[in-house]
Amino acid sequence: MKILIIEDEKELSASIASYLATQEYACDLAENFSEALDKIETLDYDCILLDISLPGGNGLKILEILKQNNKSDGVLIISAKNSLDDKIQGLNLGADDYLPKPFHLSELSARIAAIIRRKNFDGHSLVKFHNLTIDTQSKVVTVNEAPIVLTKKEYELLLYFVSNKRKVISKDAIARYLWGDDMAGSFDFIYTHIKNLRKKLGDAGEADYIKSIYGMGYKFSD
Amino acid sequence: MKILIIEDEKELSASIASYLATQEYACDLAENFSEALDKIETLDYDCILLDISLPGGNGLKILEILKQNNKSDGVLIISAKNSLDDKIQGLNLGADDYLPKPFHLSELSARIAAIIRRKNFDGHSLVKFHNLTIDTQSKVVTVNEAPIVLTKKEYELLLYFVSNKRKVISKDAIARYLWGDDMAGSFDFIYTHIKNLRKKLGDAGEADYIKSIYGMGYKFSD
DNA sequence: CTAATTCTTCAACTTCTCTTCAAATTCACA
DNA sequence: TGTGAATTTGAAGAGAAGTTGAAGAATTAG
Fold this sequence. Notes:
4-stranded antiparallel β-sheet, alpha/beta, homodimer, about 20% strand, DNA-binding
């Protein structure tokens, strides 16, 4: 479970992070507006702790951006300003919960657990990458909201790509993932399935997500 | 895990070192400005404890130099001067945390653990050398933030250089690393790959990292 | 059981990398 | 400063890696 902590008080965020680490959460820290945007863009988090009163840009702005990118699931607002106004505004923008400072780390942890539970529950098992979404429950893949039809192998391949986005994946790894450990020899399957997947993504308007890295494998990125 | 302690009070640094040794950290000590620079240049540390109030040069100066060399990840400032000013300046320069004296060794240890965890987590397994970074997951190499495209052999060669930076590497060792043990005879491959790597690094603005040591091999340094 | 779909195999083709080689240059040492 | 050895360089062919289309095998659906 990955958590992003957007908080400018370093001592606080460090202690949150070290506490959450004991609960098996992996934390990323962002201490200002631009850092936060950066992390949000490059990684997906199971939960985002957002301090509203952030220097260099308002925390609510971040929430808006998350909302626009369909990533506002799992946001827990923390704030010293315990004003009703902030709270309402935050929840309206799609935050899942609101926790006024100061708080006990155990309460924070409980709320995070609740948010993640909820998120994984309501059919939100969506894996996303830009305008591409994969619903791992219904197994429906959409590009720009329009569904595309994939075969089973193509679906598994795409899911593997998206969940390892921006990493170079060796053909060996792909072979092991799709066919199990005993896939010595030829990569002809892979070539063909990649060709077909590229074709279908291309037809749907999103070519070029799957890059070949000569001699190394493939990389799914933008 | 390697830790550098930059601290002029010998008793303090000794007791920190011996405590951290019990936690499986290996500590190096530097008790003044020049010693610190020396250690920083020759070795990479997982965490650096930096006393701001250092004789013979300000500790913040060291932080600046670390920052310039892209080594400011993992710096924990310790200081008796518990002024807000120092703190802000330190954190602006990229330190990860700030611990005012006096402190409990257990707290120090907890913060170090947090810093190392953070560093390994959001560092994406980055190998760095000055303005050069190698992301070993995405296999992307950047010079001054701009990505450069390398072939597989070039990438492996560069990675070998960077992980053996500032050491003289024999062509035999390079050959064994890149092609396995059975590479008797000619070094023509190496010459060519080094030429190409130099070209690409040069085009990206960083020539001269790869030095030839006549009759011995090569050295990657600045 | 048949038809349709999907998966795998194969071969021709394209693209990019690696290696080879010879000529030019640099270096250490006498 | 001259000499042989070490290194650099550019060019080009060999070779590996990746792409593509087509067709047979396997699987699934009706």
